[in-house]
Amino acid sequence: MEHEFTAQIVQILQAAFGEDGMGIYERSPLLQYLNIKTRSAAQGSKSRGSFANLYAVYVLVEDYLKNSFDTTNNYADYEGARFTDLLTRQRQLPFGSKLQNHALISRMNEEFRRYFPQVDILPILRDAQTNRYWINENLLKITDKQKTVNIARVVLAVIDQYVAAKQSALKIFIETCERLQTIAGEHDATVSIFIRELLSPQSDARIFEIVSYAILRYYYYNQIVYFGFDLDHLQEENLLLFKTGRTNANDGGIDFVMRPLGRFFQVTETLDVKKYFLDIDKIEHYPISFVIKSNEEVASLLFRLREGAIKQYGVKTIVEKYMACIEEVINIPILLERFEAAKSQGHLRSILGEIVAQSKIEFNFNS
After folding, report:
1. pTM
2. What is the rounded CA–CA span in Å between residue 117 and residue 111?
3. pLDDT, tens digit, for every residue of 158-212?
4. Sheet strand arrangement including 81-82
5. What's the CA gap between 102 and 91, in Å, rounded?
6. What is the pLDDT of residues 34-56, one digit of tens each?
7. Cis bond leading into 260, ω under 30°?
8. How many CB atoms neighbour CB 71 within 10 A?
9. Max Cα distance, the chain (Å)
């Protein structure tokens, strides 16, 4: 696989090993894995960074180098790095403060095996009883032209360069938002174009969720409902939309909830029927609205979901039961319409401010 960041990996290899760099890359599954995982580097802030598995490798290689095992050749006798130290270090790294333990325990190895089923060794070694960890040194020592080299420092350099690229893209995005937030009213058209461009099928899932939330929050903001226990004592309330957690967290939660109606919203970029019906199952068939990162017409999206449900279940009663739980489908064109409606009510700057605030929370960006 070759992408824009591949050239930077090649430069790092050539700086370390000269003309032997490409030969070493071709013999290194670990470097090839890093190449796969860094393909989003040149795609800006709207592309998802792959930090969890990369940082699992990073902290173990860092520990390896800190103890000079690249020169002492006695790593086989090492008692291993402590899990708590590794996790703490991961969370100190850029974008890493919310990382969990899954990558170190199993996910990095599982993904590596999927990409390289022909490779018998796995990158991360673990003693479950002592909770000690090692990087597999066999993946760090590469023999090329009858000479063995250690790529540990190159591994760190590649990941550092990738993180720097992602930081740069995110900083540009945040600074653009903040700059637009200060532009006078005559430049509202520029702000509007900027936000509309973020609603793209190619946008990162987290960016799309943040922008969708900001638009829908202010679309519903001025809508009023009346609640009360009898007709003589009705209370006027605005519709308020709340985010229920971090974006794209795979935590089984619902993305937005509306007060006081109790509507649920889930943001998705897939048409996998199992994913939709899993969301419906987790709230026990309570009605749910889906915000879909697609320009496809709503009728077509619903048709495809129904066809997928028929293929999966084949029983009309079950299919209709699930389909009846889809309260509303909101695609990109509908989001754009609602953006224009919210903008006409004077909420353009509030929408932008919400995008800035939520982006800073999501990407742990404080400077």
Report:
1. 0.61
2. 10
3. 999 998 888 887 777 777 777 766 765 668 888 899 889 888 887 767 788 889 9
4. 81-82, 132-135, 124-127
5. 13
6. 999 887 654 444 445 578 899 99
7. yes
8. 8
9. 90
Retrieve residue 338's tokens: 């609602």
End-to-end CA distance of the chain: 34
